[in-house]
Amino acid sequence: MTKGLVNRILPFSSVDGPGNRTAIFLQGCNFNCSYCHNPETISLCCNCGACVLECHYNALTTENSKVIWNKRLCKSCDKCLQVCKRNSSPKAIYMTVDEVISEVNKFRVFISGITVSGGECTLQAEFLVELFREAKKLGLTCFIDTNGSIPLWKNKALIDIMDMAMVDLKSYNPLEHKGLTGMDNNVIIENIKHLSKLNKLYEVRTVIVPEVLDNEYNVDMTSKLIASLNPDIRYKIIKYRPIGVRTYMIKSYTPSDKVMSNLRSLAVKNGCRNITLI
Ligand code: SF4
Ligand code: SF4
Predict the structure, then answer these.
(1) Which atom of ligand 2 is nearest the CA belonging to 54?
(2) Would residue 184 count as lying in a domain?
(3) Which family does the entry's similarity section mention (predicted)?
(4) pLDDT in tens, 126-135
(5) 56 and 189 share a domain?
(6) 187: enclosing H helix or E strand
(7) Is the CB of 247 under 6 A from ligand 2?
């Protein structure tokens, strides 16, 4: 059975799709955005052992050149994440679909679905398909939270089994997008259009990062795109916040409420009817 590399499972989340959901964060991302607030999910662990020396609770050991995490001893102090220079985590573990489902089942009566996030969850598409197949048997809806960089229209099995997607459009300007992520935004925009056509686009997100991104242009163009597809698709406009961010990589600050409110007005003017500011 396919295994997924899981960074962590959050039993309850009300911000990762509709209703109360279990959020499953997979390890590994093909982007390395300077404002990422989960940088420990970006890379795969190379078992260098640097974090083992820093764990004061003996929750990390090295066996056969592999770093092993002992969940029972871990105090979640996150010291290991702070010392990792690779943007990884020694706490990411390979799990079978059955193991993830057994975790999810503990919260089944309190949730309406699961959302798989990352890292970039579509890099582990085969695992997603198998996981969603089993989650559906429990009557759960299945969402993905994606950077949109993998052409979903080429993966019919995933598109068919998942319910909906939340897609980040980090910049509408292809050059700015490339500077931030290493690739332009063509595939992301095509994914947005494709998902919308199938009624599987739940939300598009833009993070407002003052003095780093051309925020007004991005909201202007993204809201026009959403309005042209379906004005009722949710457009979530998110304040950059320096929490958990590698602040040595980025010089920015949290935009004011006034700036956010002006951006909302712009999106409304362009025809969006379902806007959330956070
Ligand atoms: S999590 Fe980071 S510091 Fe720890 S072993 Fe892996 S790569 Fe090294
Ligand atoms: S989070 Fe857990 S594994 Fe990491 S340093 Fe703290 S106790 Fe050790």
Answers:
(1) 5
(2) yes
(3) Belongs to the organic radical-activating enzymes family.
(4) 999 999 999 9
(5) no
(6) helix 186-197
(7) no
